[in-house]
Amino acid sequence: MKLRVSAVQYHLHTIQNFQQFADQVTHYVKTAAEFNTEFILFPEFVTTQLLSISETGQGQPIQNLTLYTDAYRELFSQLAMEHGVYIIGGTHVMQKGDHLYNVAHLFSPDGHIGEQAKLHLTPTEVSEWGITPGDSLRIFETPKGKIAVITCYDIEFPEVVRMARGMGADVIFSPSCTDDRHGFNRVRYTSHARTIENQVYVVTTGTVGSLPTVDFMRGNFGEAAVITPNDVPFPQDGILVKGEINNDMVITADLDLSLLYEVREHGSVTTWRDRRFDLYPDLGKVETETLPTPEWVTANRNVRV
Questions:
Q1: Strand 208-209 to strand 171-175: parallel, antiparallel, or no bridges (unpaired)?
Q2: 48, 65 Cβ separation under 8 angstroms
């Protein structure tokens, strides 16, 4: 089975109203849709651009993102349905009860919205923004197979992707937001490690540009990439396609899941199969949460979305 994915290097800049945000998001979706893509990935903290909306010239606090939740979800959901694609709408800070969470969203062509809260938080997210970590890992089943959405810092923890792979995920979408080359390389290098350890694809992207009035979003360093295992059927450097660092652009690539199945059985190395459970636990069997398969997926499993 093959699927086509696109990743957006989202350019952050000061805007005056929500409509400007909506216009920019729509532009990226339409651009990817022209390439007949099936999954579109936006970066982490994409909605922080909304915090630059101000009549005083001062950026809004992170808590104000919760005021835009309904509009954000309606915008991305409508675009997913209109273009018949899955959209991983980056992440958005949401309030649930008394807590703020950094939540990745999967918008489906049928209007369903899936959520995956970030599990591991950076010091800035905790001390400056007061965000609370999520407490469960979810797997999303689509007509193109099972996927997971693992946000930025989460990809740096091998246990998380191990669990996702154990639940059947073949493609990991990893929206990120890093402010310098150090942070970018942490995400990039560990993404490569996750593809080798688990023999999966990782699709990643980050924010570019700058929000001069928004605290902790003044600098962004990003580049989208589709990362593969390092084995004969794949590129030697493990990169199927990548963007140009810090440029405003969209990348697109085709993922062949049959190649993953081939290397898991007959690759130069078979890392997933060769795990030593006599020495360490099988994290692939840790209980996590698999979202139920909607009826429309079962009915249309062989139909292109």
A1: unpaired
A2: yes
CA distance 65 to 93: 6
Say which of 115, 125, 141, 152 is annotated catalytic: 152
CA dihedral 298, 165, 201, 198 (to 10 degrees): -150
| Residue of 49, 63, 58 whose CA lies nearest to 213 | 58
Residue 152 bears catalytic tag: yes
Q: Are strands 201-205 and 225-227 parallel, antiparallel or unpaired?
A: antiparallel
Q: What is the pLDDT along the chain (305 residues), one digit of tens a residue?
A: 999 999 999 999 999 999 999 999 999 999 999 999 999 999 999 999 999 999 888 999 999 999 999 999 999 999 999 999 999 999 999 999 999 999 999 999 999 999 999 999 999 999 999 999 999 999 999 999 999 999 999 999 999 999 999 999 999 999 999 999 999 999 999 999 999 999 999 999 999 999 999 999 999 999 999 999 999 999 999 999 999 999 999 999 999 999 999 999 999 999 999 999 999 999 887 655 555 554 444 443 333 32
Cβ neighbours of residue 66 closer than 8 Å, sequence gap 6 or more? 93, 94, 95, 100
Task: Measure the CA–CA gap between 300 and 305, rounded to whole angstroms.
Answer: 9
Pick the catalytic residue from 38, 115, 118, 177: 118
Question: What gap in Å lies between CA 261 and CA 170, rounded to an integer?
Answer: 9
The active-site residue, picked from 38, 44, 115, 141, is 44
Buried b / exposed e over 64-77, threshold 16 CB at 10 Å, is ebeebeeebbebbb
Residue 142, number of CB atoms within 10 A of its CB: 21
